[in-house]
Amino acid sequence: GQQLNQSPQSMFIQEGEDVSMNCTSSSIFNTWLWYKQDPGEGPVLLIALYKAGELTSNGRLTAQFGITRKDSFLNISASIPSDVGIYFCAGRRYAGANNLFFGTGTRLTVIP
Amino acid sequence: DAGVIQSPRHEVTEMGQEVTLRCKPISGHNSLFWYRQTMMRGLELLIYFNNNVPIDDSGMPEDRFSAKMPNASFSTLKIQPSEPRDSAVYFCASSEAGAGELFFGEGSRLTVL
Description:
B: mainly beta
């Protein structure tokens, strides 16, 4: 299947610090999505990106759709304890495609 | 508004037993997906349906796995016979066709002893 490489695999940060994670692919994607998964729950959509170069914010979260269409990054500013979880990138290859390919996830731990 | 509903949330069974996982997608969504999540392999797509029709089942591990969607509001994923390596969290997700924004259920955690 399609491979989305996500980095870093895990992060340990102090509360209040900013966080940055990214996702790369060898193929072009039409859509990039970022999800967060809390323990024992399903992934929840955070941000959706539909155009190359697009920069979108959702509260303290900011994500960008890379200009090459092969990458995306997610930033979290001023982290808080409830940011703990696993963050997944996901991509859709072309417009109208139903299937999403998921990255391997970044496990975030916030130390109070 | 109810999200994707999965049952059971947890199942522990013995090797060789049949397992049936159930999913009710969000009303009005016409695409339904079954994913499996493990530590080693992450989130893997098993199969997805559009308008109740299976479109891509290339992710189904082997013949022991089968999935059905008899109507727009219900789907099952069946494993028969189950094996310990099937232990994982199985997620159902749904979306409007082509929208690409999947909404996930809370998952069914399967343990096969």
